[in-house]
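## Example record

The block below lists the input lines for one assembly entry, exactly as stored, with component labels intact.
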Amino acid sequence: MATVEVVTPRAMEDSRPLGALLHEWILTVDHKRIGIMYVSMGLAFFVVAGLQAAVMRWQLAVPGNTLVGPDTFNRLFTMHGTTMVFFVGMPLVFGTANYVVPLMIGARDVAFPRLNALSFWLSLFGGLLLYSSYLLGPGLYGAGSAPAVGWFAYAPLTEPPFTPGTSTDYWILGLMVSGFGSIAGSINLIATIITMRCPGMTLGRMPMFVWLLLMSVCEVVLAMPVLTAAQVMLLFDRYLGAHFFDALAGGDPVLWQHFFWFFGHPEVYILILPVFGIASEIIPVFSRKVIFGYPVMVAATIAIGFIGASVWAHHMFTVGLGAPINSLFTATTMAIAVPTGIKIFNWLGTMWGGRLSFATPMLFSTAFLFQFLVGGLTGVMLAVVPFDWQVSDSYFVVAHFHYVLIGGLVFLFFAAIYYWFPKATGRMLDERLGRWHFWLFVVGFNLTMGILHFAGLLGMPRRIYTYQTGHGWDTINLIASLGVIPQIVGVFLFIINIVVSLRRGTLAGDDPWDAWTLEWATTSPPPDYNFETVPVVRSRRPLWDLKHPEDPDWRHE
Amino acid sequence: MTPEPARGAPAEWRLPSRGRAGMVGLIVMESAFLGTFVVAYLFYIGKSVSGPTPRQVLDFPLFNTICLLASSVTIALAVKALRGGRRMLFGSWLLITILLGAEFITGTAVEWYGLIVRKGLTIGTNLFGTTFYSLVGFHAGHVTLGLLLLILVWIFTVLGAVRVEHAERVELLSWYWHFVDAVWIVVLTAVYIVSR
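Predicted structure tokens for the full assembly:
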């Protein structure tokens, strides 16, 4: 085994005055700093949108509660959903990608560093624009503030007669601005992955995270402009007297639904594919085995990308599109379970017979496998049209997509932060706090969302601000609301962990997890230029080759 | 600790230029954006509840189309001239491209003036007006953007700043121009042929 030189990580450079530090961060075009800013933005909005969810759960804890009124509640679920998708999920995806992808492919930076900085600031200001509605948006008859039209903002509710005032425009413009950022960021990452891989890094040797991210950002480029175009149409309706979604002039509100979900369903895959990539990096390292079935994993990724673009109308089964269209979208929706199932079996195959070590990143990844499976299976149930008609717009659907987006997405981003924090800062996150965070969150989350499946099956509709006793929903809602408490404590411990570990965490060294991808070949944190010499890659695990010259991977691949 | 040095390095390691990859990404993105307006236009053909209809007010823009399509040829010739190092010839073809593009925009302006002022069709008149002005307007907007960029390159050419090593950048701009042309063929088919 090659001798591994232990390099003392550079201390976080915080000795300079705050002004100079701010100046440096704001003007930076370094992909690592932009990545860290994206992730910080995602976490900040995660806390905000999480607290919104907590208020909603508090309101629903007992029947007839009067904590918030109907208008406030509408704003809460609109802002919660919009924020979680566009200002938590997207920045976490782009932040992780920004930090990790250039390092993984042995590049110095992304293809267009200044465009990268622009993308981040557009995303951030999109979010701030959305939230400025709380202060600036007069809304419905001057009574409103934040938008209250739901995160998918269905027409005709968003048409001028039904939501006068400007609050809905904050939703349109905030998302549009951050959408430009996402599109530019995606084109940037595609160009980076296609054109800046280090010598020997063929497509067949790319780390799984890079493959999955590539598919995800390709979907951004195809799907996000459709939302932008639909939002432009909505703005034309609202301000230029156009009739795109105006039924009185012959317009069709269902067209908005098609456009929105043509974006909206791929958006789910835009968010979930990169976290599949995170699982595909973490599980092999903590199982001490190569990923099981790499080529099949890549093929499944591409299949999910393509099928994922053709399932959107399963969000619209209750519209009445007719049996042929419903059947078609049932078929495509069920078909997507096949490549997804392949992935789950391959992750299990990777763990099977491995020397498993359950450090915090692996704990979160393992919980992901089970929770995402639940979300996937309820997804297949919802693909069955008659069943969907029964539970559409109920808490069953809410529980389903929270198992995908919390049980899958959020859990793996926690895993990613525990995994890559040492690389980004040079210090480890505390394992003991990490375990507390994990167990509190896994118990709290399953308590809240697990039991809400049954509220949905018992007929509790989503987006109601209160309910009367006697439907059999009382106990379920109380338990679901109590589950919020451990989740809040868990996230609080996570934040404490980050703050404390930044200053006092154990020094990580270059490669604390004994991992195999290129980001662990450079120092922690990496220098501005990433690698002293351009790496040359001969297999899928370049660091294994380096550490085990007697039995390198390229002899077997 | 750095990964294995040159031993076993691939003899030749060439990847496409990042400019090309970026421009392809931009064009795909623009296709999705403009495609949404094409879908909306096609979806709403014949669904207006009041007049005027496309047949009543639209004339086939033959001269405009010829000019825009010809500009794709002239910009290709311009790129070829720059690659060959003939900067005078490049400047001339570029100028012709700009004039052809300007004619297209002027033609659209004249058409819109007639529609709005004389025929009384605005974006709020009916669904046809809504979808027509959005689709044709966004296309014309893209032509205008391309035109501004071409004019910028032409100014640099006159100032002597464009040299043969810039040929790839100019070629990438020409890709965008070809794309705008290709979109016009789609718009022309949808608006002036199918819906008339």
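The domain at 33-555 of chain A is CATH 1.20.210.10 (Cytochrome C Oxidase; Chain A). Chain A touches chain B through 58 residues (CB under 8 Å).
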